[in-house]
Amino acid sequence: MSGPVPGSERVVAALALREVCVGYGERAVLDRVWLDVAPGQVVTLLGPSGSGKSTLLQVIAGLLVPDRGQVLWDGHDLTAVPAHRRGFGLVFQDALLFPHLDVAGNVGYGLGVAGIGRAQASARVAELLDLVALGGYGGRSVTTLSGGEAQRVALARALAPAPRLLLLDEPFGALDRELRDRLAVDVRALLHQLGTPALHVTHDLAEAELVGDRVVHLADLARPV
Amino acid sequence: MLRARPSSTSRAQTRRGDQQQVRGPVPAWVLALVPAAFLLVFFAWPVANILARGASTDGLVLLARPQTWRIVEFTIVQAVLSTVLTVLVAMPGAYVLNRYAIRGRRVLIALVTVPFVLPTVVVGLAFRALLPADWIGSLAVILLAHVFFNYAVVVRIVGGLWGQLDPRYMQAARSLGATPWQGFRTVTWPLLRPAVLAAAALVFLFTFTSFGVVLVLGGPTTTTLEVEIFLRTAELLDLPGAAVLAVLQMLMLAVVLLVAARLQAGTSVAQRLRVPSARSLTRPRTPGQRALLGTVLGSILVLLVLPLAALVARSVRVRDGWGLTYWRALGSIDAGTTRFAPPLDSIRVSLQYAVVTAALAVLVGGLAACAVAYAGRAGRVLDAAVMLPLGTSAVTVGFGLLIAFARAPLDLRGTWVMVPLAHTLVAVPLVLRAVLPVLRSIDPRLRQVAATLGARPVRAWASVDLPLLRRALVVGAGFAFAVSMGEFGATAFLARSDTPTLPVQVVRLLSRPGEIPYGAAMALATVLMVVTAGAVLGAEALQGRGQAGR
Question: Which of A62, A146, B13, B105 has its C-alpha lying 20 to 30 A from A12's C-alpha?
Fold first, then answer.
C-alpha cells in the first residue's frame, strides 16, 4: 500500500472516491464520481435502476478496476489492493447464499478462508446468527429460508469477518414493503451498534430515509468544480 | 428487457409441466408407436442378437487369452488418460471463451466446435498429416487426437454453465476475503462439479469407444476393444469372438454410465443461474488475465487449428511443390472396390444417404419428441430409450444390424437401406434434443386460443405448434445430415463394397500403397471436413437465431 495521497490529509473520511470513471464500451456508466463516507457513518446513495449504483459498489469492493480515478481508505490509495484484502463486506439484492453450503457454512465462509480455527469460527457464527435473530438456524439448508431470512443470513455472512466497511447493494429490493421497512430499521440499528461505516444504495426513497444518516443522489456525485 | 421476459415465462412453464401436463392433439401412445417400433426392430433386436451370439462357447475362449485383457487394459487406460487430459487442457478454454469479452467470441466457440463434429477418420488423418510417420501408433498421438476431438465437449458443457454462473457468487467470496484461487476452490468448483463430471463422463464414453481415430492412428499394441471387434468381424470373420467382445464392452459401458449417474446425482446443487449479458463478461485487463487469454488462444491454435490446416496443406503438397495432383486423382484413381468407382462417386453416395437419414431422423425423432413432451412421466422412459443408441458403440450398432438382418424374416443383406437405418439410430437422439426444449417452451394456451376459435385438436396443433417447431426440425435435420456424412463405425460394416460412403472411401484409400492414394485420402477428408462442418455450423447458427428471437 502506498503512503497518503498528497492533498488528501485534510479529508476527514474513512472512504473517499476521487474522480472515479467507468465506461462499458462507448457509454460512460460512472463519470467523475466524488464521494466521502465518514467513520461510523451510514451513507445512502439514491438513484434509479441502471444508473451505475452497483457498478460503483463493485469498484469500491475491488471487483472492477475503474478506468480512471481513485478509491481511498484513510487517505491511502486502494487501487492496487485486490478485493480479498480490502476488508469491505458486500450484500447483494438477492441474498446470493452459496447453495452448496448450509446457513452456518455461509456465515462462516469468510472466517474459513481467513484460516480462523473451527471452534473460534463456530462461536462467531453463532454470535452473528443471534445478532440477526436467526439463532439455531446454523444447520438449515439455504434453500429452506424465506426471502427475509436469506437476506439476514447474507448480512450475517458479510459481517462475520468484521469488515471495516459494509456495502449494501439494494439489500431489501427483493422483499415486500412491510418486511423491507422492518429489516431496514433493524439494519440501521445493527450498523450503529457495531460502529461499521456503510454505503447503502437503493432506488427507494422511503428505504433511503430509514437507513441512511446521509442521503445523496448519484446524479449529484460529479466533482464540484 | 423485452426479450428476457418470454424466456422466464417459458421456464416457469417447464417447472409447472411437472404438475400440469400439456396434452397433445392425439394420445401420446399413438405418437410413440413409430419411434418405439423403430427402436425395437433396429436397435433392441440387433443387440439381442449380439447377446445370443456372445453366449455361445465358440467365442468365450477369447476371454482366456491374455491378449484380450491387454486390449481391455489399453482401452481403459487410454480412455482415462484422454479424459483427464481433455478436462485439464479445456478448462481454461471453457472459462476464457465464456467469461471474457473478446472480439469474435462466438466465432471462436464455433471454431473449437468444428473438431468435434468432424468424422473421426478425418481427425485421424489430420494428425497423420501433421506428425512425423514414426509417431503413428503411439499412445501419445491417440491422446492428442482425443483432446483435439473432445475439447469442445468440455468448453460447451462446463463453459455453458460457467458462463451462466452468477458472477456475484465469486464477488461475494472475494469480498469475504477469499483469494481468486480460494474462491475458485470453495465456490466455483463445487458449483461447476456436476458439469465437469458430466463432460468427463461423455469424453470417457467417446474415447472408450473410439474407433476411427484408433483405427487410423493406432498400432499393434495400441488398439481398443472397438477396433478389435471390427477387425474380428471384417478381417478374421470371427463373429462369435466379436460378439463376446461386444457384450464385454456393453457391460463395461453400463458400469461407467451407472457410476457417472451416481456421481452426478450426489453433487448437483440447486444454483442460481443467470442469463449471460454483456455485463457479466470481463474485459481482460490485468497482466494475469491477458496471459491466460494468450495461453488459451495459443493452445487452440496449436492443438485445434494446426492439424486441420496440415490436412488441407497435405492434400495440395505434391513431391515437387504444390499442386492439385491428388485432387485430380479423386476422379480417376482405383480405390480397390469390386466394381470400379472413383472416390468422387462416394461424395454422391454419402449425400444420398445423408438426405435419407435426415428425413427419417426428423420423422422418428420429431414423433418421439412429441410423445415425450405429451406423455408426462411415461415420456421419460421413451426419452431414455431413444438416447440409448448414442451410448452404445457405433461398431456394436453396425455389427448388430449386420447379424440381425442377415436372414429371414427380414433379410436386408447388401441392400442400401442398412446404412441410413444405422445412421438414423445415431441421429434420432440429436433431433429429439433439438426439438424437445422448443416443444416444451410453447405456451399451451396458444393452442387453447386456436380451439376457442374453432380449430379441431390436430388442426390447432398443425397451425400453432408445428410452425413454431419448424426451425428446430430444420436444425435437427442439419445435425442428422452431418452425422450421416461422417459416421464410420457402423457404416464400415454395412456399406456395400461398390458404393462406399465418404469416410469408408477415405480409409480404403489409406490402406492402398503409394503417394497418390495417400494424398487423395487427404483431399477427400478435406471435402468431408468442409461438408460436415458446414452442415453443423449452419444448423447451430439457425438454432442460435431461433433462441435470440424467442
Answer: A62
